[in-house]
């Protein structure tokens, strides 16, 4: 069965950004955290807890519905997959995402979409992230 990424244990997060770095390396062959499909940020100030901004694997993805070129296709288990050759760089998916989890790669003018590959969860040293069976939503 398909799985999706869950950031259910962010109370353990220390802000090491390993998840972001691994995502960028595995999916974009790049060491810049700007290429990551997951963003970790503080909830407020230097003493605030951390939050992960990541695709929640919607069953009816607004980002896909907003895409005029068919570049986003439904992924088994929720969320979408990007067909980069069809993307026209219109930013509609980015604006439509209810979680603000569609990030933009300005170098190639295309969205950065979470594939729910699990690399970030696998390498998270504090087990803040996990892969969950799609039926467990």
Strand order of the largest sheet: 1-8
Coarse shape: globular
Q: How much strand? A: 15-25%
Total number of helices = 4
Q: Between the first and last Cα atoms, what is the distance in angstroms? A: 13 Å
Helix content: 10-25%
Give the SSE string: EHEEHEEHEEHE
Q: Please write the CATH class name of the domain at 3-58 and 100-136.
A: Alpha Beta
Residue runs with pLDDT of under 50 for 5 or more positions: none
Task: State the secondary-structure class.
Answer: alpha+beta
Name some characteristics of this structure:
alpha+beta; Alpha-Beta Plaits; 19% helix; 137 residues; single chain; two-stranded antiparallel sheet
Any overview of this molecule?
The strands form four sheets. This protein has a two-stranded antiparallel ribbon with strand order 1-8. A two-stranded antiparallel ribbon has the order 2-3. A two-stranded antiparallel sheet has the order 4-5. It has a domain at 3-58 and 100-136: Alpha-Beta Plaits (2-Layer Sandwich). By secondary structure, it is α+β, with helices and mostly antiparallel strands. The longest helix has 11 residues, at 18-28. It has four helices and eight strands; from the N terminus they run βαββαββαββαβ. It is globular.
């Amino acid at each position: 069965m398909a799985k999706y990424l869950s950031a259910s244990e962010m109370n353990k997060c220390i802000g090491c950004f390993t998840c972001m770095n691994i995502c960028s390396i595995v999916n974009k062959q790049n060491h810049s955290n700007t290429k990551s499909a997951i963003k970790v940020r503080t909830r407020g100030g230097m003493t605030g807890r951390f939050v992960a901004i990541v695709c929640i694997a919607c069953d009816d993805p607004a980002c896909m519905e907003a895409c005029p070129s068919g570049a986003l296709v439904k992924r088994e288990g929720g969320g979408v997959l990007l067909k980069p050759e069809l993307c026209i760089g219109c930013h509609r998916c980015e604006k439509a995402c209810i979680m603000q989890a569609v990030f933009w790669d300005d170098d190639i003018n295309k969205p950065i979409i979470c594939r729910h590959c699990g690399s970030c969860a696998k390498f998270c040293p504090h087990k803040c992230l996990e892969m969950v069976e799609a039926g467990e939503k």
